[in-house]
Amino acid sequence: MRTVEVGGLTRSQLIQKLQQNTILMNELGKELLADDKFRPSETKYSLEIVELAVGELGFPDGATTSRIFEKAIELDLELCPLELGPYLRLVYLDQPEGYSGKPVQQNRAPVGSITIASEILTDDEDFPKGFYLRKINGVLWLRGYRADHLHVWNPDDHFIFRQTDKT
After folding, report:
1. Contacts of 106-109 spanning 24+ positions with Cβ under 8 A
2. Domain residues of the chain, as ranges?
3. Which domain of life is it from (predicted)?
């Protein structure tokens, strides 16, 4: 569990800050950050977040995105705002190395990656669904991903959720 400060930067300031911190992005991440659906907050706010594996949510054989999100909500967790991705990347600089020396498997989350559980903005299968964080050969990445409604996440895939505000 950790607290992350989010908001207060414009889109261009956020991109500049990512570049200044040598954080790389894939094309899907760039597309998501540039789209009008990505709306950075003008004011700063704090989020309490928690990282959980799909198996820890009660899915030993994996689950679809909708089942994972439904279970998290049952457990009093919330989806994160989309803008958490770049802000978390900027502060989570000590992420463990994700490269295992094994080839990347098609249609699977990469080893060591952490997906931000955020609202799916569109049903368009070609549009990125959200962000994930990864460290590859010492380089930090903010990446976008695509996954359709049938995609089954592995039990060891990790997601970030927002802790429900108890106030």
Report:
1. 107/151, 108/154, 109/145, 109/153, 109/154, 109/157
2. 2-163
3. Bacteria
Cα separation, 44 vs 120, in Å, equals: 23
Residue-wise pLDDT for 143-160, tens only, equals: 999 998 899 999 999 999
Cβ neighbors of 87 (< 8 A, separation 6 or more) are 4, 5, 6, 7, 14
Listed in sequence order, the DSSP H helices in 40-105 are 65-74, 84-91
Identify the pLDDT of residue 98.
Answer: 75
* Token representation of residue 127: 């549009």
Indicate the SS3 state at residue 39.
coil
Contact call for residues 25 and 18 (beta carbons, < 8 A): yes
Task: Tokens 């995609």: give the residue.
Answer: 151
